[in-house]
Amino acid sequence: MRRFTILAVTSLVAVASLVTVAGGSPANAASDPVTITLVTHDSFAVSKPVLRAFEHANNVKVKVLSQGDAGAALNQAILTKSNPLGDVFFGVDNTFLSRAVNAGIFTKYAPAALANVPAEYQLDRTQHVTPVDHGDVCINYDKQWFTDHHLAVPKTLDDLTKPAYKGQLVVEDPATSSPGLAFVLATVARYGANGWRGYWEKLRANDVKVDDGWEHAYDGDFTQGANPGQYPLVVSYASSPPAAVYFADPHPATSPVGTMLDSCFRQVEFAGVLRGTDHPKEAEALVDFMLSPKFQQDVPLQMFVFPVVTGTKLPAVFEKFAEVPTTPLTLSTKTIGTHRDTWIEQWRSTVLG
């Protein structure tokens, strides 16, 4: 995702004075800053002035270590839990939540700012991870492509199995991609434990394409991506329409990307302190920072998801162009945790076998 440019040093100091982080301490010029590592996925982003302000206020240096898509990053964190790669992990979502908690990679920590986060996002009752943002994984479509091909935009999941939409949809592998898994879970929620595999058999017969992660699918294969491909339908997010406007130059009056609201699955992302950190106080301060007003306001235009703290003002491009489902598809974290690995294996044998 695009990041903002660094402001002048004087501006950073001004911003720093506005950032209040629970558990933080003023910068101490007499001591060297502590370096802490944030392990995360490739789509994590925060504007540099906001991050530098946190570093200044807490006398730390944050190293961001990207580890691929969310599923791949979590797998790496679990594999290295006896010798963790960093101090904080950001990017585990409700589709992989039980795996992360059960693997024991996090220590318990509950920021005071959770009091300002609605209960619907506080899905980990054990308090090992903290909700930071939410969004809806949905199928996006290229408006102009369907206009040019004189074809009606598909409205429902069932529509995607029709011959008219053969070879038009690209999805992500649920074993390595959190939006890929979220879309599989959407089909489970819609068609039930006995019907979802039959639905995917129809998608396979209709030439669905599978990529390993979101970046490849959206930016490489989607017709509205950064490097336009040949697929006018892609599993992405309800926030893709405002992103398409924001990154365009000049900004269009309407978004070139639409959202199939019938396909959406609610996703919540979390951060947690990694067990084994040598800097627990600083790691907790970084988690606190992610619920601070400055970070929460930064979230929409950095990662194109929604903040979780009540009352956070959204940017105008989100207010105008985001297409948010009123009743997204959902499954409980317990249900996901119980069946996720089996469903992934069943999906792979059905779609890739």
List keywords for this structure.
353 residues, alpha/beta, D-Maltodextrin-Binding Protein, domain 2, 2 domains, 9-stranded mixed sheet, 13 helices, 9 strands
Description:
The chain has 353 residues and is of the alpha/beta class. It has two domains: 9-134 and 268-312, D-Maltodextrin-Binding Protein, domain 2 (3-Layer(aba) Sandwich); 136-266 and 318-352, D-Maltodextrin-Binding Protein, domain 2, CATH 3.40.190.10. The chain contains 13 helices and nine strands. It has helices spanning 9-16, 48-58, 70-79, 97-103, 143-148, 178-191, 196-205, 214-221, 240-246, 280-290, 293-303, 316-321, 333-352, and strands at 34-40, 60-66, 88-93, 130-142, 169-172, 209-211, 233-237, 257-273, 306-307. Strands 1, 2, 3, 4, 5, 6, 7, 8 and 9 form a nine-stranded mixed beta sheet that branches. It is globular, with a radius of gyration of 20 Å. The two termini are 33 Å apart.
What's the CATH first level of the largest domain? Alpha Beta
Number of domains: 2
Averaged pLDDT, please?
90
What percent of residues are in strands?
A: 15-25%
Assign an overall shape. Answer: globular
Order of helices and strands: HEHEHEHEHEHHEHEHEHHEHH
